[in-house]
Amino acid sequence: MAASTLSVQCVLRRAMAPSLVVILGATGTGKSKLAIEIGKRLQGEIISADSMQVYKGLDIITNKVTAEERAQCAHHMLDFVDPLVRTYTVVDFRNKALDRNKLPIVVGGTNYYIESLLWKVLLDTEDSGDGADGGQSRKMELEKLGGEELHKRLAEVDPKMASMLHPNDKRKVARSLQIHNDTGVPHSRWLEEQRQGGDGLGGPLRFPDPCIFWLHADMEALDQRLDARVDEMLATGLLNELQDFHLRYNRQKLQDESQDYQHGIFQSIGFKEFHDYLTAPESSSQQERDKLRDKGVEALKIATKRYARKQNKWVRNRFLKRKFLSASLCIE
Question: Which domain of life does the UniProt lineage start with (predicted)?
Fold first, then answer.
């Protein structure tokens, strides 16, 4: 599943001094192991591009690299955001991740995080007066409105952007409205300016001549590997990790009716799937709890395999269509 030694050598010879190395692909294809090997050979440092691994906690369910793996090569963008923070954005990630002196080796499964580092595609509205937290808070307030109402408001100020977004895509519609509210400029106009020097999918490359690996596998074989990985997570203490995290961070939110599984670390694949198990009444019998546990395990396996397909779809539909990649991408 990982790239062969021959393919690695081929690409590295082609770009002996790359400005950036990127390793992408579906979960479970061996990206982290390849990143560590390249990091050791090229004396680089690994940038984790995973939107859930930036948060402290849930190490097993988010599949963070182990302490032993981190010791082999320096890793960044792991375990530094408080789990209760709901306003950490891809712009925050981009601004922090790019502050490196050594060769950055970007690896992870959150494709829009990778996209934010490779291309100049993101609008930064932090200069609007109250910083990123304020902007994100306003966006979350907008998301509380109905999809039709949000879309109607967007159509009034930015009809071009509204024509590209479905009313059900509340998060993107709210983001476009927030950008207009913060800057006074339609989101569609910002995107047009960013595309200058780039292509139809976004702005120009941020780094010249990046070295990019796409790891992929036969889906039947990958499905088996992902199922086995969930079983391994269970054997290494997944349920204890989930229960501890629920008691420390989630139970009070549920009692206050302030919890949702759409923001922050609480949207991690594997946490919400065990909601019924974690919130089962204390009076539940062991048989009932076992049934809820098995239900969570099956839901986790299904969600993980679905996510792997979503990651591959993004690579094919967005990444491979960019005209800058013909000399940069190694498919293995």
Answer: Eukaryota
